[in-house]
Structures are given as structure tokens and as C-alpha cells.
Design goal:
Blueprint lengths: L2 H15 L21 H7 L32 E25 L2 E25 L4 E12 L7 E14 L2 E11 L7 E14 L2 E10 L8 E10 L6 E12 L23 E14 L2 E13 L5 E13 L11 E10 L22 E13 L2 E12 L6 E14 L1
Antiparallel strand pairs: 1-2, 1-16, 2-3, 3-4, 4-5, 5-6, 6-7, 7-8, 8-9, 9-10, 10-11, 11-12, 12-13, 13-14, 14-15, 15-16
């Protein structure tokens, strides 16, 4: 049986275990907190913004019971607006060591480069609610690179998608953000459709099909993405099984082959990728969480060769931030990566995993400190130390240190 069919059967099995809520039931849309994302990104990668607001809740009258309370209805449609303004500064140092054969023997060659990234970004995310179950969400983004003007992206439409809640099922159509788990395998805009089953008896599931949104068709990949999660309300354990199978939609673009080599540009390094991810986390205390993500991936290169490899990502999260408006709230997390080059489509990290070529993959450490310094104002300090995972004739080292200041509104 093909992996794609097996994944669909697994999802259908779990869907059959989930009881569909009765029509008209009151379903709350809780926004999960992603460990590796900024506060607004946490909102963007959640299934949906919260529909109910404080204005929709009736005022409790003295002596009134819950059955006597009638929720105050909004006039429809209504508009909800979120956004962020972010400044980021990072400095990366990249080193390559190799031995070159010469007529006089081997000669050691060292290359060093430095990259400075001062950048600011503004996002506006309006949501038009047609009813309690239908809404249209968009996102406008303006991004400016103060070091390389060619990287500037003036105001453009980054996302536009429709969502519909039908009992315990949520449908999403359009261009939305696909963020799986901690973003170690994909954090990318997807043109397509997604079906989410909201948690019922500890189970939840998600099934998506679409195409990654890239400027050129040779960069785009199309395929299936699926997730099944389980967590009992009284348990400290959290389990997720994720599957991704995507292939390139366009032909290999010869002008993007690296000069003087037979290596393809990063976005076209694999024509097809199949990734399995098994994530397990455990809450030792309310403010201490450990997690391990096990990876198995296969990548098919443009010339037909296949790379099958295993990897893992381990994280220790301390005193994680629950809400960006709580002054002084903070978190620290330490993460170790050991990932094959075929184990991600677009990585969420602020370092550059694309630096490690020759299909070498990468391994190394990341440490991050996040603190709320004002209402909706979050400061993040972050550092990376990475090396190539496999020795393919090169020894590569990447060191990145930076900070970001984000105002969420």
C-alpha cells in the first residue's frame, strides 16, 4: 500500500473515533501557543482567531442564573483587526573548511563570510466575520531589508483564506499559513484546502492539500500534509504524528544551478520529499516542558537519486510565555537539531539551514530568551551554532546571534 493511501486510512480511522458536536453547540476556539513562534505568529498558525469577544457576552445580572443569560449578538458582518510591527537585527558568520588537491599535495582552504540582517516588517491581519461560523481573513505585509535593498518586499497580499466551522469540523480554503508542529518540517504559505477536526476525547486531526506559494513555479511544491494528535486532558503527555508528501510542480530551472557545480539551488534541491514526524512532549511542571521530534525523510533529487535518512530535534522549554500582554512574562528554550537535508520544506528557524549544501543536512544548538517588556511588546534574544551533519568533503560552521522587538496589536 502506498504511504499516501496509508496516511489517508489512518486519518479516516481517527476521524471515525471523533463524535461530531450537535448543530448549534457552543464551540470555543482556543489558540494554541507555538513554542518556536512570535506572539502574532502564534495567532497566525492557530486554526482560527477567537470569534467571541467580551462584547458578545451578556452582563451578569444580580441573582440571574446561567440559563437566564442571553448572549448579546453582534450585527453581522463585523470586522476584527490584528497586526504586528517587528524589527529584527542579526549577524551571521559562515565558515567553510576543505582540503584541495594540488600538484604539490593537499592544501587546506578556509573561507569566511559575514552577513548582517537589519530588517523591519509590518503586518495587518483583518478578519471579516459574516456569521459565527463563516469568516474571511487576509494579511498585508511590508518587509524592508536595510542592508540588501533587493530583498525588500513592499505592501503585498500574503494571505487570503475563508474559514467555515461546521460542528467539530473546520474548513479552510485559499492561501493560508501551514505550520506543522514546531516548524521544523514546514512553515510556509499554502494555496489549497485544509480540514481540521477540533479536539474530541483527546484526539484531533488535520488534513491539507495544496501548493506552496513561491515567486517561480520551479520553486513550488504540491502535495498532501496530515497530522493526528492525542492528549488526554489529565495527562502531561502530548503526542503528534505528522506526514508530508510533496513534489515539485515545475521543471528544473537550469539558470538556478550553482555556477561551477552540478548542485541545484536550495528550493530545487529535491524534486520530491516524503517526511514522517513523531512528536512527543512531557510537562514536568507547569513551567517546564521537554519534547523530542523523531524524523524520517526521503528526498528524490532531480537526477533521480533518492536520499533516505533519519533525524531528531530535542527541546527544553522553561517558563513559556502564555500571553504577550502579561508584563514581565518570559521563557527560555534550548533546542538541539540533527536534521537531514530532506527533512524540511521551509524551516522556521531564523538561521540559514540552506547554507549547508551537498545534501549534508545540519546539526547544532539554539538558545532563545523571550520576555514581555510592555503591553504586547516582546523582546527576543536568540543564538545558533550549527555544523554540517554529514561530511561531504566540506566542514561548514554557521554562527548566528540576533534580537527582535515585536509590537503586537
Amino acid at each position: 500500500m502506498r504511504p499516501l493511501s496509508l496516511c489517508a486510512l489512518v486519518l479516516l480511522h481517527f476521524m471515525s473515533l471523533i463524535t461530531v458536536a450537535e448543530a448549534g453547540s457552543d464551540i470555543k476556539h482556543n489558540i494554541p501557543i507555538a513554542e518556536s513562534s512570535l506572539p502574532l505568529q502564534q495567532i497566525q498558525t492557530a486554526s482560527t482567531p477567537t470569534v467571541q469577544s467580551s462584547a458578545e457576552t451578556a452582563t451578569q445580572k444580580p441573582g440571574a442564573t446561567a440559563n437566564q443569560q442571553a448572549p448579546k449578538k453582534r450585527k453581522k458582518p463585523w470586522l476584527e483587526l490584528h497586526g504586528e510591527a517587528r524589527y529584527i537585527y542579526g549577524e551571521g558568520r559562515f565558515d567553510i573548511d576543505t582540503d584541495v588537491q594540488t600538484p604539490f599535495g593537499k592544501r587546506h582552504v578556509h573561507q569566511h563570510s559575514k552577513l548582517i540582517l537589519p530588517q523591519h516588517r509590518i503586518r495587518l491581519e483583518p478578519t471579516l466575520h459574516f456569521s459565527d461560523s463563516w469568516r474571511l481573513t487576509g494579511m498585508l505585509e511590508d518587509s524592508r531589508d536595510h542592508h540588501v535593498s533587493a530583498n525588500n518586499r513592499h505592501v503585498y497580499l500574503k494571505r487570503l483564506y475563508m474559514q467555515h466551522d461546521a460542528g467539530s469540523v473546520q474548513y479552510t480554503f485559499g492561501r493560508f499559513n501551514q505550520f506543522m508542529n514546531d516548524g521544523n518540517i514546514i512553515d510556509e504559505q499554502l494555496d489549497g484546502i485544509r480540514v481540521n477536526l477540533k479536539p474530541q476525547k483527546g484526539f484531533s486531526a488535520s488534513l491539507a492539500y495544496g501548493r506552496t506559494h513561491k515567486p517561480y513555479n520551479w520553486q513550488q511544491k504540491t502535495g498532501l500534509l496530515a497530522e493526528v494528535a492525542y492528549q488526554r486532558p489529565d495527562s502531561r503527555w502530548n503526542h503528534k504524528l505528522e506526514y508530508l508528501n510533496m513534489r515539485a510542480t515545475g521543471a528544473v530551472h537550469e539558470s538556478f544551478i550553482m555556477p561551477g557545480t552540478n548542485l541545484y539551488a536550495e528550493e530545487d534541491r529535491f524534486r520530491r520529499q516524503e517526511i514522517w514526524s513523531l512528536y512527543n512532549s512531557y510537562d514536568f511542571t507547569p513551567h517546564l516542558r521537554g519534547s523530542v521530534e523523531l524524523l524520517r525523510s526521503t528526498g528524490w533529487r532531480a537526477e533521480g537519486a533518492a536520499e533516505r535518512d533519519y533525524g531528531w530535534v530535542g527541546t527544553l522549554l522553561i517558563h513559556y510565555v502564555h500571553q504577550p500582554n502579561k508584563l514581565g512574562d518570559w521563557d527560555v528554550w534550548i533546542r538541539y537539531y540533527c536534521q537531514p537535508s530532506s527533512s524540511y520544506i521551509t524551516h522556521t528557524m531564523d538561521a540559514q539551514p540552506t547554507f549547508f549544501n551537498n545534501y549534508a543536512g545540519f546539526k547544532g544548538w539554539c538558545a532563545r530568551y523571550e520576555v514581555v517588556v510592555g503591553k504586547g511588546l516582546v523582546l527576543i534574544l536568540e543564538g545558533f551554532y550549527l555544523n554540517n551533519r554529514h561530511d561531504r568533503g566540506l566542514h561548514q560552521t554557521e554562527r548566528v546571534l540576533g534580537f527582535s522587538l515585536t509590537q503586537v496589536f
